[in-house]
Each structure stands twice: as C-alpha cells, then as structure tokens.
Amino acid sequence: MSAIRGTVYSATTIRVPGIAHAAEAPFVVLLVDTEDGRRVLGRSVGGRGPVIGTRVEVVESRDSVMLFAAVAKE
Amino acid sequence: MSGQVYVAGVGSTTFSKHPNRSLVSLGAEAARAALSDSRIPVDAIGALFVGNFVGGIMTGQELLAPIIASELGLSYVEAMKLEDACASSAAGIRLAFQLVGSGQHHAVLVVGVERLTGAPRDVFTAAMTAAIDNDNEGAVGVTFPGFWGLVMNRHMYQYGTTREQVAAVTVKNRRFGVRNPLAQFRKEVSFDEVLSSDLIADPICKFDCCPSTDGAAALVIASEDLARKYSQSPVRIVGSALVTGPARVTGYRDITVHDGTVEAARRAYEMAGVDPEDIDVAEMHDCCSIAEIVDSEDLGFFAKGEGGPAALAAAEGRRHGRKVVINPSGGLLSKGHPVGATGCGQAYEIVQQLRECHSNQVEGARIGLTHNAGGTAAVVTIHIFEKMA
Asked: What is the ipTM of this complex?
C-alpha cells in the first residue's frame, strides 16, 4: 500500500503546548494538501519542519497522528 | 417589523489580574456600572445574559446568570449563560438585540466576565484547549497560537506579508493602550522587543499574543422608548450578525480568509445599510497580531494581502488609505482578553468613541464596528453602532 503523499500547505512549531502534549514540545504541526484532494493536519518527524510547498509523505501513524517526512529526491 | 435597539448604558471593571475576585463579584461590578450609566430602572430589565467561557473550570462556579441576577436584586428575569469561547458576551449582545428589536423585552442586561488567573497553571492550560475540536483535532496538539502560526506562515507565503508588518500591530496597539485606563498593558513596546520575545508557535512570539486577563464588562440594551427616556447618551445598534466559520483547522479552504468574518460582515453591513468605507472606528479580535491583519482584510477595510502594509503604516503614523482607526482601545493585545468579557468590552469602547469621550478619541467618529471571534474563527459576531443624531 502506498503512503499518503501531499504538499505542505502551512506549518508551525509548537513550543508552548497544551497540557496533554507537554512532554512532546517542541513539535512541528503541518497542514498538508494530499494527492487525493484532502487537507489534513499532522506533524513533521523531527524538530525542523519542511517549508511550504515541500512534497511530503506519511512515514508513521502514531496515536492517530500522521507523521510526515519530506519525500526523498528521486 | 422590528424596533430600533440602543445601548443605553455601559460599565466595566479594569482588565487586569484580579485573582482574588470571584466571577460574581466582577460581573456584578460591571453590571451595576452599566445599570447606573443607563439610568433605566432595575425592574425594567427583562433578561440577563452572561457571557463566560471557562468559569466553571477556572473557579468552580457555574449557574452564573441566576446568581448574578440575585446579587443585583433582579426579579423574575430570563437569565442564562452563553458560551461561544472568545465571542461569548458578543453572542449575548446578539441575542439581546434580537429580543429587544422584536419587542420581547424592553431592556436586557448583557454581562461578559472571565477570570483566567488564580488557578494552577495546568488548570489554565487545560481550559485553553477547550475550544479546539478535540474529537477531531485534539491529538495533533495544535494550540490557538499554533492555529495563528499556520495562518501567519501562509499569509506571509501568499502575500509577502513581513514579520515587521505583523509586529506593527502589537507596537500600534500597545501605544494605544498607554492612554486607556482600563487596559492591562499601559507601556509601549518597540519592534525589537516584539521580535525578540520568546517564540510560542513559530514565527509567533509572546508579544504577538494577547495576555491572560481577568475582568468584566456590561451593556444595557434597550428599546428606543426606554433609551430616549432615561439614557443620557444612547448609541444605536444598526447592524448585528453571528455566524459560524470552520471549527476545524482543516475546515479552511484558504486559511488566510476567515469565512465566518466575511459572511458576518456581509450580513451586518447589509442590515446597517453601510459599506466598509463608512466605518470610522473598529474594535477587532487581535488575539494574535496576525489576526488583526487578516480581520482587517476580511472586514473589507483592505484588499486581501494589503493588511500588512496598512498595519505598518498605522504604527508608523502614516496614512493607510482608509479612514478607519483600528483598536484604539489597545485591542486584545494591550487592553487584554478576559475571554468571556471581550465582546462587551469591545462594545464599551465603541460606545465611548461614539459618545466622543474616549481617551484615544477618533475625531468625528459616527459609525463604529466590533468584531469578536471565538476559537479558530469558528464563530464570529459583528455589531455596528451609530452615534445618535
């Protein structure tokens, strides 16, 4: 099954989290426009977010949160 | 057929830290001031609406409206609390407008009150995530500054809005706050101070965000008969709208255009028979500095993408091409944001402008607008006020 792929629509780094995510900060939240036409909310793997326009794909789904990483250049 | 509706009286506490005051005490203080200002007899009040967001979580007090009614000595009033996050008391104004306009009541007291200090930090943090659609978007961990960080990054990408233009909103509003006796912050900040403050949700910094505030504000909304008979300086409500926008971050097609604001503005302008160009003064929902830029565009003051340059011009004392003066109270950024009280607080400021007694008076102000949005602009209220001839 192929991974969900899309393009970063926007991103931000959460440094002051809500109580439920206190231990995880800082983390990068992404809005991604997927190839199948959806706008989804997820996170970026790692602390540095991809810039708007980057092609990304889901590399892991953890606790119903999609984790995206930049698609490796072919 | 509906009658004309007026703000007959206004009252407010200071917007500040009041950690030892109860919600009832704060709300009653503002209410008494509004009743006294209106000079309308207490037994003419037919309803009391209390706007409050997280009073139960923060202070353990619910049933606010009937308790405040008892405290004020009101009898047999229609009393209830309304909650629309940051738009809670503006929702009360909307409901009062409809009931007085349709003749159901001759006078309605609307109180907004909030206390965000005085409880442990984790209680506060938990309360602040109560307006996120937790079922659908809670797991990702996006916060409200995070939502605005997503908006800001996209706005900068789409329109070339600069970091300095966004910081200009804070600089401008802090400068206005210096002269507002109700304001939480009464000290200017420089562009450098804004840009070097701690990051909250990149690129949003601490000084791009409104503070935690306690306070209350109240309005007496009345029919034309009562307003003209008793009130020294009534102000007419000529436009009123409340609509939902997307409650989910993913619900926005274009996250730089807030559909709730655009639609509420369309309805309010149409009801009032005015255009954006007619607005002399506006109190808008600057919970984060970028929000004022987005809202100024969505309210029709500036073309989409032009709000940034306009904000920088205003901060630098240059003309931005429109007559509207935005947030001369200091806005949420400087006056403060006691969440449930903000709707009534904004109306209080516009009424003072139209009475020509504001500390940052807009010369010749005749038509004013309030814009109050809850959550991710998931609910937006707009009211338009006109100075009596």
From this structure: 0.96
Strand pairing category for B5-12 and B204-205: unpaired
Residue B337 a catalytic site member: yes
- Report which DSSP code applies to B20: T
Assess whether B344 carries a catalytic annotation: no
Sequence length of chain A is 74
**Residue B106 to residue B100: CA distance in whole angstroms:** 6
Q: How do residues B13-67 score in pLDDT, each as one tens digit?
A: 999 999 999 999 999 999 999 999 999 999 999 999 999 999 999 999 999 999 9
Burial bucket for residue B121 (CB in 10 Å: 0-12, 13-18, 19+): exposed
Q: In this complex, is the C-beta atom of A33 within 8 Å of any C-beta atom belonging to chain B?
A: no
Tokens of B212: 């935690």
Q: Is A19 on the interface with B (CB under 8 A)?
A: yes
Q: Which residue has the tokens 């507002």?
A: B180
The two three-digit tokens of residue B68, written as one number: 């405040």
- Please write the tens of the pLDDT for every residue from B204-215: 999 999 999 999
Distance CA B161, CA B198 (A): 21
> What distance in Å separates the CA atoms of residue B249 and residue B132, rounded to the nearest whole number?
9
Contact B141 A10 (CB under 8 A): no
Query: Helices H, strands E: what count in chain B?
Result: 15, 12
Token pair 């009280």 is at which residue? B341
Which B residues, 216 through 255, put their C-beta within 8 Å of a C-beta on chain A?
A: 249-250, 252-253, 255
The token pair that represents B339 in the structure block? 């969440």
